[in-house]
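Weekly puzzle thread! Below is a chain. First person to post its structure in C-alpha cell form gets bragging rights.
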Amino acid sequence: MTERYPNRINTLRSNVLTAIANEPEVTAEWIRTLIAQYRQIPLFDVSDDEAEALAKDIEARLDITMNIGSVVQEEFTPWLNDAKIEIDPYYWDRYQRLLEQKNFPPAVIAKLDQVTDRILGLLENPGKPGPWDRRGMVVGHVQSGKTANYTGLISKAADSGYRLIVVIAGIHNNLRNQTQKRIDEGFVGRDSSRLQSGTNKFVGVGRFDSRRLPVTFTNTARDFNKATAEQLGLGINVLKEPAVLVMTP
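Winning reply:
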C-alpha cells in the first residue's frame, strides 16, 4: 500500500473494523461500501488504490470469502475437465501470483480459481472443429470482484486456446482507459502505451514471467479503429500468442 497519509489510513481502518465488529455477516461488497462512505469525510481523504488495498487488508483479517454464484444453462456437453490435462496454465499462473502479491486472501483466490473454471467450462471448447456459436452472460454486484473475475477468465481462456479476446469496457474513454490499465497489469504484462514506440515496460504479471506476452491492438491512449485494423493486415491465426482488444461499443 502506498501510504500518502498513513495516519488517515490507520484511523480509517480502525473505524471500519469498529463498525463491522458486531455484525454477524460481513461481505467484501459491504466493506468497500463502508470505506466509500467514510471517504466522504475530509479526515479520510485517501486514494482509490489505498482504499482498495485497505479493503483487501480487512478481508484478509476477517477471512472474507466469495460465493461461487448460481448458473442457468441449456443443454451443453462439458469439455474442460478432459481438456485440462493438455492445458498449460501459463497465463493463469502469472495472474494468480499477482493476486497473491496484492494480498488477496488464499480462500478468495481458491474460490476465484473455481469460479473461473466453472465459467470457462460453460464456454465452448476453442478446439472444437467447424463453426459454432456459444453465448452467455455473467452478472456481478458492484465491488464484488468482477475485474478479478474477468481477468482470471481471460487468462484461462488464453491458456485453453482462445486466440482473440475483446473486452467492451464502457461508453466513455476514461472507463476504457482504466480497463486497459487493468488488462495490461493482469494479462498483457506490458504498459500498452509504450508499445508504439517499440519499448517495453513490464507491469503486473509481466514482472513475474515475460517469456510469452499477449498481443494488444489497443492501449491506454487509443481505442481500436479502422486505420489500426488496416495497418495490421494479418490474420489472428498467424499470431503466436492470443490478441486482446479493449474497446468502447
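Puzzle host: Confirmed. Bonus trivia for everyone else. The CA atoms of residues 147 and 182 lie 8 Å apart.
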